[in-house]
Amino acid sequence: MNAFHITNVVAVLLGLAMGLFLKNCMDLTPIEKMSIRIPGDSLIRMLQLVSIPTLTTSIVLGVTALTAEATKKIAWRGAAYILLLTIICVCLGLALVLLIKPGVGQTVGQGELEKVLPPLHAFLDVVRNMFPPNPIQACFQHHKTVLLPFTSNGTRSMVGSYVGGSSTLGLIVFSFVAGRILQDTLERSRILVDIVAVINAANRFVVSVILCYFPFGMLFLTANSILEVHDLETFYRLTKFLGVILLGLVLHSVVILPALYYWIVRRNPWTVVRGVFPALLTAWFVTSSTATLPVTLRCCESRNKIDPRITRFMLPIATTMNKHGTALYEAAAAVFVAQFYNINLNMGQLLTIGVASAVSSLGSSALPSAGATTTIFVMSLVGIPAKNAAILMATEWLLDRCNTVVNVLGDCFGVALIEALSLNELGVEPSNENAEEHMQDTQVPSTIP
After folding, report:
1. How far apart are CA 126 and CA 100, in angstroms?
2. Cβ atoms within 10 A of the Cβ of 240, count?
């Protein structure tokens, strides 16, 4: 273990001790609990600060460092990986929850499905957010269609507006198009590409500074996590559902991903896990794959030695669209709520839940607790009342962390696989020359050996 591992493990242990002491020996007020979280919140905010510059500049540099043909092939491989693994996770989540039936036997009466509108507007929001009218606005707002309450005559209308939260899909599309334009006009746009490279290098230096603060922030995040476990009775009632989700996440992380990697690459998959362990640790406490992106990039490039042209092109995209843990959780949670409230679902409704879980995970926000919001969306598509999702809140604090870790692990395995499949494209001229020139400009000393 290196110094980074040791300091973070010590921070976690101290945070656990601090949280248990404050919870059992002191009666803290809500304001005091909020004060304890401030150093941890500062860490999350700092990571979120550098996440968008990291995402946009990495995609632009990744695209300009590759030929047009290589970009196309790598993008198709990435899309196939994301879609295939998302479908597998949705099927795994549905299979486990239907086989084990964690909600059966805990019913609270016969439930009924609500009447819902067609889900077309929700899917169109994903398309709208892919093409933001203003890239600056996309950094802090995204489009969302909201269903208004039923009127006195029984009708229900929709209204679209911009709400808080970055439109990550829109930023990805904008950065990809900008990179392709700069790639096609590289001789005339060399100065602009160099400016982007300098911004990326400066951003990576800021990340190295943030990582020096990381153990201190993690200590208080750990303590706050202990203080937030306040409803243990409800938590124990949901342990069967918790076990189903954790079983699915373990099967995916320990069996499916390593087996797929070994089958294609013929290398030890645990070297990938060992190399990205700091990123997984960050994901656990930050509960945001977007905020974890700077650390994930450093781990994949510095520790796993993955080609920067692959990581900078694919990781920002995978962070937004490749959410294996979230897809598994959403599908299983919707069926669990139906079982808990004795709501019968037919095969068509189960298929709708599966498709909606896959699509919503591809376009969901990469912010903390985004899975809770998208789960309500999935439930509403088949008429399960949104208020019934309240029973999931007792496990949200733990499962959100587990889902984020699996999401980040899937991203790391994905870029490792794509690099192994793209060796020919990475060796095509002039991509090597471009890559060497721009990647050398963006190298900064790493704090993660």
Report:
1. 33
2. 16
Q: Are 37 and 224 in contact (CB under 8 A)?
A: yes
What the block records as the tokens of 424 is 């020919």
Measured in Å, how far apart are the chain's first and last C-alpha atoms?
10
Residue-wise pLDDT for 353-394, tens only, equals 888 788 777 755 555 555 566 677 677 667 777 666 767 766
Check if the beta carbon of residue 269 is closer than 8 Å to that of residue 257.
yes
- What are 205's two structure tokens? 């230096």
The total of other beta-carbon atoms located within 10 Å of residue 234's CB is 13
Look at residue 288 and tell me whether its pLDDT is greater than 50.
Answer: yes
Query: In sequence order, what DSSP letters do the residues of 174-222 get, joined into one string?
Result: HHHHHHHHHHHTTTTSHHHHHHHHHHHHHHHHHHHHHHHHHHHHHHHHH
For 354, half-sphere exposure in the C-beta direction (CA atoms, 13 angstrom radius) is 19
Q: Express each pLDDT in 242-283 by its tens digit.
A: 899 999 999 999 999 999 999 998 889 999 999 999 899 888
pLDDT-derived band of residue 95, with 50, 70 and 90 as boundaries?
very high
* Mean model confidence pLDDT for the chain: 78
Containing 142, the helix (H) or strand (E) segment is: strand 141-147
The residue written with tokens 């990435």 in the block is 78
Residue 271, φ and ψ in degrees, nearest 5? -65, -30
Nearest-Å Rg of the Cα atoms of the chain is: 22
* pLDDT of 118 above 70: no
Would you list the DSSP string of 94-140? HHHHHHH-TTTT---S---PPP---THHHHHHHHHHHS-S-TTGGGT
What CA–CA distance (Å, rounded) separates 66 from 309?
7
The whole-angstrom separation of Cα 330 and Cα 320 is: 16
Q: How far apart are CA 107 and CA 98, in angstroms?
A: 16
Under a CB-based contact definition with an 8 Å cutoff, are residues 328 and 93 in contact?
yes
Q: What percent of the chain has pLDDT over 70?
A: 78
Residue 443's Cα: distance from chain center in Å?
26
- Range name among 64-78, 191-205, 275-289, 424-438 with the lowest pLDDT average: 424-438
Distance CA(427)–CA(432), nearest Å, equals 6
H-helix or E-strand containing 89?
Answer: helix 68-100
CA atoms within 13 A on the CB side of 117: 15
Token look-up 């839940």 returns: 353
